[in-house]
Amino acid sequence: MTDLRICFLGDSLTFGQGDPTGLGWPGRVVGDALQAGAKLTGYNLGVRGDTGAQIAARAPAEVKARFRSGDAKAVTMFFGANDIGQDLPLSDSIQALEALLDWAAAHHLTAFVLSPPLYENALADAKAAGMTAAFAKACAERGVSYLDLREAGVDWALWWAQARAGDGIHPGAEAYASLAQVFSGWSAWRTWTER
Q: Cβ–Cβ contacts within 10 Å for residue 152, how many?
């Protein structure tokens, strides 16, 4: 059986802030894969408050330390909330993603990229929509698997309701579970884990 290793790169939405179970969506994705019989070790490298540039800067060292062994290695990239929240130029986010994708390719890592979430606030969502399109283009140019979460079936009404009931930004366990279900059912992910 193939020994799979994966690092989940991102911000507080990757870390799973607001989830009282501590699993977030990566913990649930790893659990689903293990239950399906995959030999998978997953590392959650989400850091609260990180922008895309900060994630790109720390990723090589953090991932290297976790990929000393294993037969097949992958990274997921899910960021943008802090770039949007800090009103950073879209070009900064694109540059960060491109740097991450080029680094992953140079180290023979499979990459999975997720779009920013769907926002309830119209201004923030317009920024997220622009980022989604730009990220899709960068991934398509490199042949990288891209999951547009905004269109993939995540329960955004639940996500927003749980965020409003919490700190206004982060959802709870059920919303993260909705994202995890979408990711776990994604054909690109299933193909990689079922090798």
A: 16
155, two tokens: 């329960």
Query: What is the reported pTM?
Result: 0.97
CB 38 within 8 A of CB 194: yes
Segment 88-107, tens digit of pLDDT: 999 999 999 999 999 999 99
The 10 Å Cβ neighbour count of residue 93 is 26
Q: Which of 84, 85, 181, 178 is nearest to 134 (CA)?
A: 84
3-state SS assignment for residue 140: helix
- The answer for 37, left when phi > 0, alpha when psi is -120 to 50, beta otherwise, is left
Beta carbons of 193 and 32 less than 8 angstroms apart: no
CA distances from 58 to 50, 94, 118, 161 (A): 10, 17, 26, 32
Residue in the block written with tokens 């891209």: 146
Q: pLDDT by residue (tens digit) across 36-75?
A: 999 999 999 999 999 999 999 999 999 999 999 999 999 9
- Go through 24-47 and write b for each residue having 16 or more CB atoms within 10 A of its CB, e for each that does not: bbbbbbbebbeeeebebbbbbbbb
CA atoms within 13 A on the CB side of 12: 15
